[in-house]
């Protein structure tokens, strides 16, 4: 089941429920998070595929924590199947060759590269050589040249440059959402590239729906947002996570924003909807003589006004009559018809 909203130009808004390390190494908890993501309307759920030796050396203070997050290959394969049964995609963060190889083996279609790895050409090349076709490129804190270099390596892949960063939660004024537009302009025309935004707004802020909506308005087609089973549980990254009911509201809001954005065309009417065309027809007043007009006169702007008149097939555009010669006399306050003019 595809929950993405297609805009009139064929683009889509994709909403990813970022589950991160919220599964805490527990398969059942991972399962519940995926179910919550699906029930809340997300297009994809994303977990961090953690193997301690890819993230740290033994003796590092969080090495044992990372070990506690490891799950078997069979569990990961089961989670992929479970997500698909719910009608959503399971995506994973990968941190090295082992997680990349497992992701490919179990049929993961999209992997995320952490902001640390945007400057890691070895892992970028591994992803480029893999059978996985799509990568989310974490670009929080990344410089322009780092993004460009990573995109060059991943040139054959579908890539989402994912802006935004986690600051537990991220202060509003530091989001720089205009970077969505800037990067979109800078890399316009690059095949397979889209821009996304990882939203880390304070869930208690009145802006918790507005910031991601602003990113969609700036051109983001992928939105990532943390989802938790309950903020009072204080699971990993709960500081910027939404509860499932809040996430459902978040999804509904972004879907509406994406629909409202639409797309314009090069046609004279911008490709406006039938509803707006109907509005145009309804509001246009009719061309009426401002004074008595004699046959043979050439109509000037001063000799007509716009009023509503009881007439079939009225003329609503002054430009249609200005400069034309009358072939019949018209009384003041009478609507002009096409048969009145040469």
From TrEMBL:
Show the SMART domains listed in the entry: SAF
Cross-referenced Pfam families: NeuB, SAF
Q: Which domain of life is it from?
A: Bacteria
InterPro entries per the UniProt record, alphabetical: AFP_Neu5c_C_sf, Aldolase_TIM, PseI-like, PseI/NeuA/B-like_N, SAF
- SUPFAM superfamilies in the cross-refs: AFP III-like domain (SSF51269), Aldolase (SSF51569)
Against Gene3D superfamilies, the record matches this protein to: Aldolase class I (3.20.20.70), Antifreeze-like/N-acetylneuraminic acid synthase C-terminal domain (3.90.1210.10)
Molecular function (GO) terms for this protein are: N-acylneuraminate-9-phosphate synthase activity
Q: Which processes are annotated in GO (biological process)?
A: carbohydrate biosynthetic process
Question: Taking every annotated instance into account, which residue ranges of this chain make up the domain SAF?
Answer: 284-342
Q: What is this protein called?
A: N-acetylneuraminate synthase
Organism taxonomic ancestry = Bacteria, Pseudomonadati, Pseudomonadota, Alphaproteobacteria, Rhodobacterales
């Amino acid at each position: 089941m595809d929950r993405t909203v297609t805009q009139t130009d064929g683009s889509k808004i994709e909403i990813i429920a970022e589950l991160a390390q919220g599964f805490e190494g527990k398969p059942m908890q991972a399962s519940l998070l995926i179910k919550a993501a699906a029930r809340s309307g997300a297009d994809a759920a994303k977990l961090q595929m953690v193997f301690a030796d890819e993230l740290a050396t033994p003796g590092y203070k969080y090495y044992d924590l990372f070990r506690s997050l490891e799950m078997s290959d069979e569990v990961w394969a089961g989670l992929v199947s479970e997500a698909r049964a719910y009608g959503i995609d399971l995506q994973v963060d990968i941190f090295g060759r082992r997680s990349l190889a497992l992701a490919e083996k179990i049929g993961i279609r999209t992997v995320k590269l952490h902001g640390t790895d945007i400057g890691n050409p070895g892992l970028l090349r591994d992803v480029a050589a893999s059978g996985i076709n799509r990568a989310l490129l974490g670009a929080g804190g990344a410089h322009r040249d780092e993004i460009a270099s990573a995109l060059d390596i991943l040139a054959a892949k579908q890539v989402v440059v994912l802006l935004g960063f986690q600051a537990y939660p991220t202060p509003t004024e530091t989001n720089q959402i205009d970077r969505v537009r800037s990067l979109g302009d800078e890399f316009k025309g690059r095949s397979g590239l889209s821009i996304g935004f990882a939203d880390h707004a304070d869930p208690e802020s009145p802006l918790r729906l507005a910031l991601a909506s602003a990113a969609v308005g700036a051109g983001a087609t992928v939105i990532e947002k943390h989802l938790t089973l309950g903020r009072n549980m204080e699971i990993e990254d709960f500081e910027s996570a939404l509860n499932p009911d809040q996430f459902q509201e978040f999804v509904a809001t972004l879907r509406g924003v994406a629909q409202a954005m639409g797309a314009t065309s090069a046609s004279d009417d911008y490709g406006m909807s039938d509803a707006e065309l109907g509005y145009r027809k309804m509001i246009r007043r009719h061309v009426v003589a401002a004074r008595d007009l004699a046959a043979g006169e050439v109509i000037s702007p001063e000799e007509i006004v716009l009023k509503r008149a009881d007439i079939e097939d009225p003329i609503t555009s002054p430009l249609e009559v200005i400069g034309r010669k009358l072939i019949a006399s018209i009384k003041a306050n009478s609507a002009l018809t096409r048969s009145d003019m040469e």
